[in-house]
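User: Sequence recovery, please. Input:
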């Protein structure tokens, strides 16, 4: 059997794949796997060909992250081919080739976040603040309804997300995992901004979208980036960052405020510790706070111990 037919069937037969994952697999197959392997019989794909294919992608300037994703897909397809006894061994044996080494994301200061919120179109001020201080993803924010926000309790409930699917447009789906459905406690600092936003910009009714575009419809990420995001960054004098970096900033702030790994996982909507561990690398500010707290603790205990020793000396003298 030829790889192209087998890989196409493999993608179509995967159970419970999310629409965006299917879209990603189809893109990786069409653009990066099929040109090299599509017409080859599975048994003809050998280790040297896989190495040359990967090197050619990197040499052409395909990002390391995309190459890692394509390699993982190729390896997964051929692993199933081994299970189906169509080939004897998997030729994908490049150590570390499937690992993504993303560049470290930038972190804004609180002052920079507010500078951005002050600069961007007023309709999107609360979007910037909730993305940061609620650590929410773009799709989670744009999928929020009025009934999901409880300002009295200071919470926002994440139950769905709004994503773009090729050929279908914007579609409401459930979060990536069960952990993605969560209640996030938000700081009182942004309550007034959210109240003002609900009054001026949100759709009407409990089911109305909290964040809507100028036409009162759902916000398209591409339109937002083109018309508002880049301009706001430039006007605020900030570097070119992605909207998702606001979530990263919020996670970092939460970690610096003392959130545990479990608390970060709950806040971020992750079921594993891997992502939360990223934020446990203490910043200089947080490490200084820890050192100061340790200093106070040690001094208090030394003072108590010294007082006890003096009392004992007085008792012996008496």
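Assistant: Recovered sequence (318 residues):
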């Amino acid at each position: 059997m030829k790889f192209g037919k087998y890989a196409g069937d493999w993608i179509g037969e995967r159970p419970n794949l999310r629409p965006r994952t299917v879209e990603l697999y189809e893109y990786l197959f069409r653009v990066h796997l099929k040109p090299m392997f599509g017409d080859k019989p599975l048994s003809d794909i050998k280790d040297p060909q896989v190495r040359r294919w990967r090197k050619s992608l990197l040499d052409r300037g395909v990002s390391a992250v995309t190459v890692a994703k394509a390699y993982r897909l190729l390896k997964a397809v051929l692993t199933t081919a081994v299970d189906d006894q169509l080939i004897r061994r998997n030729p994908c044996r490049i150590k570390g080739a499937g690992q993504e080494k993303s560049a470290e994301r930038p972190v804004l200061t609180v002052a920079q976040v507010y500078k951005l919120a002050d600069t961007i179109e007023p309709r999107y001020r609360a979007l910037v603040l909730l993305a940061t201080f609620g650590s929410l993803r773009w799709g989670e924010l744009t999928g929020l309804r009025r009934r999901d926000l409880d300002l009295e309790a200071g919470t926002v409930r994440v139950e769905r997300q709004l994503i773009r699917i090729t050929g279908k447009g914007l579609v409401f789906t459930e979060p990536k995992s069960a952990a993605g459905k969560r209640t996030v406690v938000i700081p009182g600092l942004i309550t007034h901004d959210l109240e003002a936003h609900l009054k001026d910009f949100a759709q009407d009714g409990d089911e109305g979208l909290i964040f809507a575009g100028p036409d009162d419809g759902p916000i398209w990420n591409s339109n937002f980036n083109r018309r508002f995001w880049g301009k706001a960054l430039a006007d605020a004098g900030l570097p070119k960052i992605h909207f998702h970096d606001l979530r990263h900033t919020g996670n970092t702030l939460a970690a610096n405020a003392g959130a545990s790994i479990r608390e970060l996982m709950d806040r971020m909507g992750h079921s594993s510790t891997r992502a939360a561990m990223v934020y446990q690398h203490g910043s200089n500010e947080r490490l200084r706070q820890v050192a100061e707290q340790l200093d106070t603790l040690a001094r208090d205990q030394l003072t108590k111990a010294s007082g006890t020793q003096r009392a004992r000396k007085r008792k012996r003298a008496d």
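DSSP finds 13 helices and five strands in the chain.
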